[in-house]
Amino acid sequence: MKRAIVFALILFAAFLFCEEGQEFREEVRISYVIYEGFYLGEAEAKENIELMKSFDFKGLKIVKKKVAGQIKFGIKVGETDSYTKKTAIVKKLKQNRFGALVYQKKRTVKIPITAKEKAKKKEEADPEQVKKKKTKALNTKLQRRNKLKKAGLIKKDKRKIPVESFVSAGLAVALGGVSYMFYSQADDHYSDYMDASDPSELLGMWDGVKVNEERFKVYMAASISLGVFSVYQMIWGGKVRPDHTSPFALGLSKRRHTACLSLKLTY
Q1: φ and ψ at 175, to 5 degrees?
Q2: I want to staple 185 with a disulfide (CB 3.0 to 4.6 A). Which of 81, 120, 201, 212 is the partner?
């Protein structure tokens, strides 16, 4: 027994010694606890939690909390460290006519500083070292560019905007118009949903909102992708590659009795 106590004391002393030698940095972490609402009785909270489950809310639980000096029963929807996720949960609650109460929790955690972080901090504290590092990086970049020039891999040429850029820009605008149409339809369905009073009609109207919202997202994503592609082609598409070929080629190809628009990507 005595040996075990002595061994435990030695381990404790070693742990304290390591803690003293180890450096830490403090970081404040924020989390969000989201509730639907607080009720005076547990029965009322249970009744409301069943209604929320019918709208596909998951992970719900009833908790006791002191609110304004009074014990109440609340429906806890979830807890997250992500501000984006918190916003999405609150938005979903409000869309389905539920309340949203958010409590912010802060906690300070100690994070051990690694040897690499210590070396970087020491280097940043010395202006001379920072200057040397930047100069070395710049010289390396210039040397690489000079080698490419000598090898004839970098050539100046007149800039011209490829036809693919105009085609993709036109498609981006067209798909943007279609996505706006679905957005308007989703907004109209949502207005009808908010004005409806018959419970039998609510789910059908809500389905209409979700379907048009998904279509809007798909077409908007396609429009943005084509827009980015168009901008890329305008800026870099006209540059001459070492083999004097364009990374993208747009053309017509014939398959049986049908003409198809083809896009070739060279990398």
Answers
A1: -70, -30
A2: 212
- CA-wise closest residue to 233 among 137, 169, 175: 169
Would you state the structure tokens that stand for residue 255, as one six-digit string?
């398959």
**pLDDT per position as a tens digit, 85-109:** 999 999 999 888 888 899 998 888 8
Strand blocks (E) in the chain? 24-39, 61-67, 70-80, 101-112, 248-255, 258-265
Going through 16-86 in order, the beta strands assigned E by DSSP cover: 24-39, 61-67, 70-80
| Average pLDDT, integer, range 21-33 | 82
Would you state the structure tokens that stand for residue 34, as one six-digit string?
């989201």
Most confident among 24-28, 67-71, 79-83 (mean pLDDT): 79-83
Asked if pLDDT for residue 147 goes beyond 60, the answer is: yes
DSSP 120-164: HHHHHH-HHHHHHHHHHHHHHHHHHHHHHHHTT----------HH
Distance CA 188, CA 191 (A): 5
